[in-house]
Write a structure and sequence with these properties.
homodimer; mainly alpha; 184 residues; globular; DNA-binding; 8 helices
DNA sequence: GCGAGCATGTAAGTCGTTACATGATTCT
DNA sequence: AGAATCATGTAACGACTTACATGCTCGC
């Protein structure tokens, strides 16, 4: 029941087609809620049925016709109600950490290499988050932004994502080093 | 297909019943792979069918009879093979962050209160991780431990868990403050 | 000409959660 | 007396993933 509200929240900055929304969620929200296009198409139709979003057909030249979804008043209300509900604890699923857990009995070199690879993708995500943060701030200080911006939720979450990647990056390097030191 | 290896890795320190394993995973591995008892019982039976674990019936007085599972040689081999496989990117699912994302249009006070609550549970988890780390180190320095311990995988993951909770705790406080400053 | 991107979905299958069932024992 | 712990599961449901289908356009 949460994907529904992740989709709704991702539509807040403006209407979007399912295809566009899938890409938007990949940068704005993938950090804490990941969804594949298939799932998003289904959820958008469900939201439309329940009157929480409204669809408009947009005919394009030299591109397939698309359906653009906008949050309705009822949708905004449902999302506000949702913010009052208790949340279940956040969950992380990471196969790599299972491999780290078993690394002593497994292929140490392979796990260390996997950690290097993960470190690289953390570095890429980190750069993306830093660019998005700079985009929002547009030269303003953080304090100034938090006082004047129309919305601060997305900024708070970007900060969380950035800090997470930063720390993960550091840990990957450290853990790979520790495992390699062990290999001798 | 990953729960299977999370279960196998959790059995490495010693044989356990499904019931015990569910609790063990709640402290050792919940950090990066969470599973409910129902799922663990099912997976253990699957692992037994495939010869990756072996079950022994243990009759107890004044307690129900239980089945204790131990990793077999084939199980150890399967886990080692698993460490060589590529991992998909780690995924976080956190309802609270959806609420933070929508907080500007929702109930700010409720979201701030939810962040306080999350901060408290982070503090508790942090204390647990710190105690587990101290338990493993037993007075030794980290360097000494990494050089001499039989296994370092669990330690590396405890460090990751600790750092995560520490940072999450700090972020929750900061975000709650920012949202409350907004409410005025 | 070929792959990548635009745009939307269905169908099938796997994974994960919730509710329920059982029944003895130990703690408050 | 009632709740929590020990111990294992089944059944039903909901969430998520994978594979596939369609067809047009743009850049290389």
């Amino acid at each position: 029941m949460s994907l529904r509200y992740a989709v709704l929240a991702s539509l807040l900055p403006g209407a979007a087609s399912g295809y566009d929304l899938a890409k938007r969620m990949d940068v704005s929200v993938a950090n804490f809620w990941h969804a594949l296009p298939t799932q998003i198409y289904g959820e958008l139709n469900g939201l439309e049925r329940d009157g929480l979003v409204e669809a408009t057909e947009v005919t394009q030249e030299s591109r397939p016709t698309k359906r653009v979804f906008a949050v309705t008043e009822a949708g905004r209300g449902a999302l506000a109600d949702y913010t009052r509900l208790p949340s279940r604890p956040g969950a992380i699923k990471d196969e790599l950490l299972i491999k780290v857990q078993a690394s002593d009995m497994g292929d140490r070199a392979a796990v260390a290499a996997a950690l290097d690879g993960r470190g690289r993708s953390c570095g890429i995500k980190l750069a993306v988050y830093e660019a998005l943060i700079a985009d929002l701030l547009r030269g303003r200080s953080e304090d100034a932004y938090l006082q004047t911006a129309r919305r601060i939720g997305p900024y708070l979450n970007l900060r969380r994502g950035r800090d997470f990647e930063r720390e993960n990056l550091e840990w990957c390097g450290w853990a790979a080093g520790a495992i390699r030191a062990r290999a001798r």
